[in-house]
Each structure stands twice: as C-alpha cells, then as structure tokens.
Amino acid sequence: MRENTKLIVGMLSPTLIFLIFLLVAVGWAFYASFTDIMLIGPAAKSPQVIGLRNYERLFRDPFFYNSLVKSAIYTGSVVASQCALGLFLAVLMHHKGVKIKSAVAAAVTMSWIIPDIVKVYTWGAFVHYEGTLNSILRVVGVPPVRWLSEKPLGVSIIGNVWGGTAFSMILFLSALETVPPQFYEAAEVDGASSWQKFIAITLPLTAPVILIDLFLITIWTFGYFTFVYGLTGGGPGHATEIAPVFIYNESFRLYKIGYGAAISFIMTAMVAMACIGYLILLRRMERV
Amino acid sequence: MSKKILVFSMAMLLVGALTVTGFAQKVISVQYGEPWKPIFESAIEEFEKTTGAKVDRMLIPYGVVFVEKMTLDLAAGAAGDVIMVDGSMIADTVEAGYIRELDGYVKDWADWDQYYPAFQAMGSYKGHAYGIVLETAANAILWYWKPNFEKAGIPMPWKPKDWDEVLETAERIKERVPGVEYPLYIPMGSKWGEGATCCGIYSQILGADTSAGDRNRLWNYTTEKWIGSSPAIERALNFYREIFFVRKLSPTDAMYAPDVWGEWRRLMREGKIGIGQGGSWEWAEFWPEAERPPEEERGELLAWAGLPGSGHPGTPPIQTISGGWTVAMNARVKDPDLAWEFLRILNSKERMAKWLGAAGKLSMRKDSAEVPEYAENEFLVEIGKLLPYSDYRDALAGYATVSRYVQQAMEKVAVDGLTAAEATEWYNNKLIEEFGKDKVETIK
C-alpha cells in the first residue's frame, strides 16, 4: 500500500507541476484579457482593468473576421489535402508492387522533420520569383508567377501540406498494417477492383484513425504560426493573416498584449468546439 | 599557537581568494544586433581588459526583428544589462519602466557635450537622459543602380526635383530595362515594420507639405494631438498608390519575403532594382561583409540622390529623416557603475568615429571631425550635406502604435487599392479608436 502511494505520488507530481504552470499562464492570460496591458508605454507598467472592452472591440474589428475567414480556408484546405495525400501515399507505400516507395517515403518524411524555420526559407526559395518552381514552369512554357504576392494563401497552404503530409502518411501506414490481408484476398477472389477494395475495406477499417488524424491536424494547423508568419508575415496586406498571425501582430507588433489575450481565448473556444465535434463523431463511430 | 596561525593564514587566504574571484567574476550582459557587431566587439575586448569583468554577449543576428525581440526580452526581464533602443521608442520604453535614467552619469562625462543637442534630445525623455545615440543616418535617400540608368539612357548624376520626376524616371527604366524587376523599390507594409515608416513614408509625409503648423507631421507639437488626416498624409499615400497599384513600378512580393531587409539588399546588389529608397547606411550594407567591394568599385555601380519634396508649393527641395539607435541601461541592471563603464568605453571618441567611418554611418558628435578615418570619408562628407534637410520622428509614447497604423494604411493603398482619401479616413478612425477623439485632429 505504501509502495503504491509512493508510486502514485511519483507519477502524479510531473502532471501536477505541469498543470500548475499551465494554470498560472492561462490564468494570467485570462486576467490580461480584461486589462489594457501593453508591452510598452505606461500600460506596460500600470495596466488598468477595462472589463469586457477588449472582447467588445474584437467583435467590431474587421481584421478579426478577416483572420477567421483566412484561418477557415487555410485550416480546411490543409487538413483536407494533407489527410487525402497522406492516405494516398500510405496506400501506395502499403502496396507491394511499388518500387520507388522508399524514395517517396524518404522525401516526404524529410520535409516533415526539418525545422520549421528551415522549412520556411526552403519553401520561400522554391516559390520565389526566381525560384525552382518558376524555373520548372518556364521549361514547360508557362510564364513565371509572383507567387508570394499573387497567390500568397495558396502557396502557404501547399507549403504546409508539403511539410506535414508525412505525419498523416505514417499514421495511416500503421493503420493499414492492422487490416487483415485475408479481407483483400477474399475481395480479389470476388473480382473487386482496387478502388472497390479501397472503398469497401480500407476506408471503413481505417476510419477511426482518419478521424484522429483530422482531429490532430485541425488543432495543429489552426494554431500553427511559424510557417505563415515566416513566409509572408500575414501579408500582402492581410491576405494571409490567419488567426495565430493576427494574435501575434496585435500582441507583439502593436504591443497590445491584453487585446491579444482576448483574441486567444476566443480562438481557443473555437478550436475547443471543433474538437468536441470530432470527439462526438469518434464516439459515434466506435459505437457503430 | 602555530596551529592558530595556520588556521588564521588559511582563512585570510580563503577570503583573499574569494575577493579576487568575486571581482574577476563580475559579469555584465550586453545585447546588440549584428549590424553593430564590430563596434561592440572592440568595446567588449577593451572593457574586459581594463576592468577584469566579463561580458556575456547577447548577439541578435540578422533576420531577427530586432525591435520585437528587444521589447519582448525587456518585458520578460530577460534583456541584457546594456541594451539598444530605437530612438523612436525611448519614450515608450521609459514609460514602461524598462530603462534606467543616466543623468547622474552623463553630467560627469566630458564627452556628453560633444553630442549635438538634437542627438542628446533623441536619447532623452522629459528632460532626462536615458540613451546615448550610437549612430544616425539619412534614413531615406534614393539609391540607384548606375548600369540600369546607363541602359535606360538617363543622365547621371541624377537629381530629381519632385515626385513626378521620380515616377517618370522609374517608368522609363521599366520600359527600357526589362531585367529590372523593381523599377522603384520603396519600403512598404507591416512586414517591413518601423522600416516602412522611418525609411519609407515618413519622409514623403514631411516632404508633401510645408512645415507650418506641423502640417507635414504625424504629431502636432502645438495642439499635442496626433494628426489623423491631412493633405500631407493623403499625398504621401497617393504616391505609394501610384508606385504599387497604378503604375505597377514595384511588385509587392519582396515586401513580404521571409527576410525583407536581406531581400532588398540582394535585389539591389544584383541590379534588379532601378531606384530604391533606403538609408545611407546601405552604402556598406548592400553587400555582406565578405562580398563587399572596395569603395571605388561600389561607386561605379551605385549612386544616390536626395529624396525630393513632392513639388507642391512651399515643400522642400530635398527631404529626409534621421533616426538613430541608442545604447541604454536596463532598469534591472545589478551593477550600474560597471554597465556605465561599458557605455563610456563603447562611446569613446576614437572608437565611435572609426567605426562610423568604416560603416558609412553619420556621426552625432562634433569631435568626430577630428578623427581622420571619419573626416576623410568622401561618402560621409556628401551624405552629411543632407542633414540640414533632415527631420526626426515623433518619439513620443504611442508613436510605435501610430507607426503600425501608418504601415497598414500603406497596405490599404498599395495592396488593396483603396484611394488615398479612403486610406486616410481608415487611418484617422484607427487613431480615434486608439487615442480618443480629443487626441486626434484633422488638418484641412
């Protein structure tokens, strides 16, 4: 009994320490969201409690709505593309006849493991006006495009998909390993095509993993800051100012840390709602 | 007895050792950016040699947004004992309680009188000294790439007399030199940050109208209000609209590159810019140190012209703005005397003048003229002639926020295509929202 108590205390302590730090930070940010605290100027030294004014301002701020729209497009496109591409690559990797799968796996995984800031500069160089993408296009007779000013959100989305697909691929690959091969053999005996096997066997049996993948990438992409900020800073204008970039710009470039905290709480509530939706769906799926 | 003597001797030795060690281990932290590395490194070397103390170097490399990094470090209590503060942010930094007053030190420092009063003021707030200006410059001059001008058949030296001439010259480059991607490059937008204001639009605002009644500023020193709307602001925004949106003289992609400063310098040294508005320090900074050609060679490729006023009646023939970086002492410094000793060594006459001369930066000290390395630098002599046309930013609490809204107003015309009047109205509303109606005025 005594040994058990020691074990429980030992295992709980890191969790408790983590929770305390988290709660202090979250509690401070929550308090800050009701103040006019700034990073510079008199309000940095003596912030005043201003009640709900930050939240009222937020709902009147067109840049906030702009960031929501951009985040919805960005997150939706990244999540859908990354999941679809990850599944496609996993099926490809799982297939025994594909010879170049090691090379594909290495290339995809490499883009995932490189540090974010290296990813930003690599992708920035690739889509640069004088970069590799335009060089390839020139070879096939397409005039060069200024991607960062003409299609900034598009190149940010594709760049993020490029950098993140490996996660989905690895997740799906492990899910595919759990599908009994007899199912496919039986389907082949019945004359099922590859597509029919995918729809009737692969998809239903990997559905819970797909949902987990969607759940995780939604949370990560919605809060993912480095890539877009590094690539465009939210510009041109506000064309790529997704929610995390908007929060950063308000908090650290306009120095309004209180206002930034208010936006963060609203954003957190939105992500939480999306997560609850996923979890409900997952639970329903488990019951089926 | 002998045992007592032994114990006593050992105790004394221990105390002595601790004292020596304690002195030798005195440490101050110094935080500085990569462009200032040479002067800081040489000062650190001398400081360590003369005081025996150690310096913890906190270098902020190229590519990091210096002002944001420094502000966050100050807010988090993680900044160095000696730090750098942009002259325009002295007021906000003092109000936040981040930096320490230096009055007690500068009053006994003979060198302080060598600083021109305008530069003493740049590092001061409400009559008290907080920062020592390390460098200044003409923040906005028009650099041009001579081979492109030759190809376009534009006579040199080029001395535009108004904004129309600048635009027409850029149009000519666009027409005749297809390899030039940015016929007229001018810092714009929020990714450029304060650079878009201090190296970009503020010079245009100053040159857009007469200075009577502060018509050409962002702050009215008589009424003590921010200027939300004025013909000067509208004209300056319209100039940007012409460049980016109407005449397409500069694609916006370079304004949002991962490293905007690095990209602007690369484009210029590769001849992809026709005319580029930037600071006088670029004479050296356009090239990385390892690739920098000697001055004569640079002179064959690169030249500069003063930025003209708008051409409206009463506007100046040339307009520029001078900023400056100051070195200051963190309010949390544990050993202010030691930190001051570092500041004193860093800002010594010889070191300062030699570094400014080598870096192509202007001095704010009268006695720099006595140092040959500075006084004989032809580029600095020429740039120095712009100082009578130079003005300063409104270094007041709130300026950083105003500057940010100016940058967003630039994006409204350059990217979104709003008219200058619409963008000015947007800017005015943001200022009212920020400071209240009684703190913002309109100049007709």
What does this structure look like?
The complex is a heterodimer of chains A (288) and B (444). Chain A has 14 helices and no strands. Chain A has 288 residues and is mainly α. Chain A has a single domain (54-287), classed as MetI-like (MetI-like fold), CATH 1.10.3720. In chain A, helix 9 (152-177) runs antiparallel to helix 12 (226-232). Chain A starts with a helix and ends with a helix. Chain B has helices at 2-24, 37-51, 66-76, 90-95, 103-106, 117-122, 146-152, 163-176, 194-206, 231-246, 260-269, 282-285, 295-301, 336-346, 349-359, 372-375, 378-384, 399-414, 420-435; strands at 27-33, 54-60, 82-86, 124-125, 128-129, 131-136, 141-145, 182-185, 219-220, 225-229, 273-278, 302-306, 320-321, 324-329, 390-391, 440-442. In chain B, helix 2 links the parallel strand 1 (27-33) and strand 2. Chain B is globular. The termini of chain B are far apart.
CATH homology group of chain A: MetI-like
What level of helicity do the residues of chain B show?
40-55%
- Which runs of chain A of at least 5 residues are low in confidence (pLDDT < 50)? none
* Annotation, overall tally of beta strands of chain B: 16
Rough outline of chain B: globular
Coarse structural class of chain A: mainly alpha
List the total number of helices of chain A.
14
CATH topology of the largest domain in chain B: D-Maltodextrin-Binding Protein, domain 2
Distance between the first and last residues' Cα of chain B: 95 Å
Structural domain tally of chain A: 1
Overall 3D form of chain A: globular
Number of helices of chain B: 19
Largest sheet of chain A: none
What is the topological layout?
The complex is a heterodimer of chains A (288) and B (444).
Chain A: H1 2-32, H2 42-45, H3 53-60, H4 62-94, H5 101-113, H6 116-127, H7 132-139, H8 147-150, H9 152-177, H10 181-189, H11 194-223, H12 226-232, H13 243-253, H14 257-287
Chain B: H1 2-24, E1 27-33, H2 37-51, E2 54-60, H3 66-76, E3 82-86, H4 90-95, H5 103-106, H6 117-122, E4 124-125, E5 128-129, E6 131-136, E7 141-145, H7 146-152, H8 163-176, E8 182-185, H9 194-206, E9 219-220, E10 225-229, H10 231-246, H11 260-269, E11 273-278, H12 282-285, H13 295-301, E12 302-306, E13 320-321, E14 324-329, H14 336-346, H15 349-359, H16 372-375, H17 378-384, E15 390-391, H18 399-414, H19 420-435, E16 440-442
Parallel strand pairs in B: 1-2, 8-11, 10-16, 13-15
Antiparallel strand pairs in B: 3-14, 4-5, 6-14, 7-11, 7-12, 9-10
Helix pairs in contact in B: 2-14, 7-8, 9-10, 9-18, 10-18, 10-19, 18-19
